[in-house]
Amino acid sequence: MAQPRRAVVIGGGIGGLTAAAALHRGGWDVVVLERAPSLEPVGAAISLAPNSLRALDVIGLGDEIRDLAAWQGDGGLRTPSGRWLSRMDADAVAERFGGPLVLLHRATLINSLAARLPAEAVRTAVAATVADPGDADRPARVSTPDGDLEADLVVAADGIRSAVRRALFPDHPGTVYSGFTTWRVVIPVPGVEFASHETWGPGRIWGSHPLKDGRVYAYAAAMTPAGERAPDDEKAELLRRFGDWHDPIPAILAAARPEDVLRHDVRHIAEPLPAHHRGRVALIGDAAHAMPPTLGQGGNQAIEDAVVLAAYCDDLAAYTAARLPRTSAIVRQAVQVGRLNMMTGRAGIAVRNTMLAALSRAAPQLVLRGFESIADWWPPQAPYAAGKTPAGNRQRRTPREGRLHRTR
What we know:
Layout: E1 6-10, H1 14-25, E2 29-33, E3 45-48, H2 50-58, H3 62-68, E4 70-72, E5 75-78, E6 84-88, H4 90-97, E7 101-105, H5 106-114, E8 122-123, E9 129-132, E10 140-144, E11 147-151, E12 153-156, H6 163-168, E13 176-188, E14 196-201, E15 204-210, E16 215-223, H7 234-242, H8 249-255, E17 262-268, E18 277-278, E19 281-283, H9 286-289, H10 298-311, H11 316-341, H12 346-362, H13 364-367, H14 369-375, E20 394-398, E21 403-407
Parallel strand pairs: 1-2, 1-12, 2-8, 5-14, 12-19
Antiparallel strand pairs: 3-7, 4-7, 5-6, 9-10, 10-11, 13-16, 13-17, 14-15, 15-16, 18-19, 20-21
């Protein structure tokens, strides 16, 4: 009997584990090498859109995640005073996009993905580098402190600071600062009930969303110089910037401890890579196309990458052809949205808010139009799970051709 092909996945985050699960399901012998001492992610939540949930259907995980997550959509966009600029309904969003937007803690998703793999497949506290990307005639080689591993496929899911990306494309300029920093917190806020919202102020945004487990996920962003940090602590910085904004923001800030607040500068890949592969190595997620979080698609696109890679693992040029145009377009769109919601000029903000409010009243479906080309994506493989797709309107994208097909 022929031995199964071996895949080495560098990075045990969402994209890496999804790729490992998809390849394992396809009969590959998979090893995941994670530099950190455990798979426990930094405390934050992740929003999953219908496109990535369909990708998770391929590995039999979509319905489990839908059940574990809180559905999003009942809420909308506000000003710092609390005035609603636009409102959305979760059922209407799900109907329009063929499935819900959901929110869950990253640790929940990581644990569900890891459970799809044999325990021995995941190795933590292992730093790995690509010593040789290989080619059609020889395997790739990955170096670790315990020795080298040969692989028929290497999946580089090593994040925004990807060492593999730098090794494969040393002339690429890498990431650039997106112009703003972000804060995130996941905490219980007893006695506070609210509708999900994102609030846009001058050069600042805040988002508050309830999780299914009763905790609150809140995030904030502000235009700042790269590398700047609070002179005291980041909770105090949030209070200075957002403490006088509408409810429930003051209550969330009051419930947060300084150690609950995470802060990271945002960087993205402005110049697309020439390819998402070289030799037998494929880049996925932030390693391939880091983007601002303004569309909530960073993790979603990593999940898409993973299942498409599993479909095209024998033809990495086809993988690049399927993913490079789509992810490059989404990065550009995320940058544009960042400019819109981080506006600082008073006159421009007034015009923006007036247009959003008028559009929401007159034609609320148009507010969602810009997200359609993202959410309508379907994986190349048929889903194994039932999914939540409206009957009679299934959509299937053929990655190689980049066209959208509707089947009835």
